[in-house]
Amino acid sequence: MTTVPNSTTTLNRKKVTALSLRNKKAAGEAISMLTAYDYPTALALDQAGIDAILVGDSLGMVVLGYENTLPVTMEDMLHHCKAVARGARSALLIGDMPFMSFQVSIPEAVRNAGRLLQEGGMDAVKLEGGRERLETTRAITAAGIPVMGHLGLVPQSVNQLGGFRPQARQAAEARRLIEDALLLEQAGCFAIVLESIPARLAERVSSSLEIPTIGIGAGAGCDGQVLVTHDLLGLFERFTPRFARRYAELHAEMVQAFETYKRDVEEGVFPAQEHTIDMADSEWAKLIEELDHAV
Ligand code: KIV
Description:
8-stranded parallel β-barrel; 8 strands; 44% helix; binds 3-methyl-2-oxobutanoic acid
């Protein structure tokens, strides 16, 4: 019989590390990863036993309301990484390197990766790109910082890709992606996110690598899966990618709760007796007497 982890067992679980994800792949166990940007979500994900939490730069779209991830800064990331780190004890914490935090120079990339660990409380970083990021990946890992790669639809290059579209559907592009994945592994990545690529290509990449692949819109053949938590919860109404499954409809529930609250306030139903702070009759009488004497 399989044991379903409950919140008590997962609260006491051991800290997940970059190495444990690799061991999970070797043991044929699927890896679960989700995004978080705040303390209560991190608490809930950790309690649910999710293996890895990504503080993604999707923050820009689903929390800060930008059109894409490009405006997200290191300061934005650090602010939200710190909140997540305060909430999660066991999950592996991965901080996304935002646009322009690793592209300008290698020393700047190492410094910014270090800030995500030192100030943000993360265990590892993720950065987008393939062969053009090998030197950067090597330098960050040489500083003792685990690096997760990200191939396929890389949202920071949305302007170059011509939109949020599936990638590597042509043989030449697919071959390049396979090569990039192998090069990232050799450069020291401990895992690679594969976003929005054909399932059979993702499966091929996964079986070619020792390190785990974490898929998003890349089919069931990856070693693990990641979703943007706001998509999973139905919290981000503006857009839901075709590959995301909604496990709840929290935006609709929020609107309903706010409407009910508004009605209760307008009808005088809230606050009720149980939400009201009492004062002893004797103290009240003392106050009235003092006030009466004052006038
Ligand atoms: O920013 C993010 O949330 C991501 C995931 C979609 C992998 O990069």
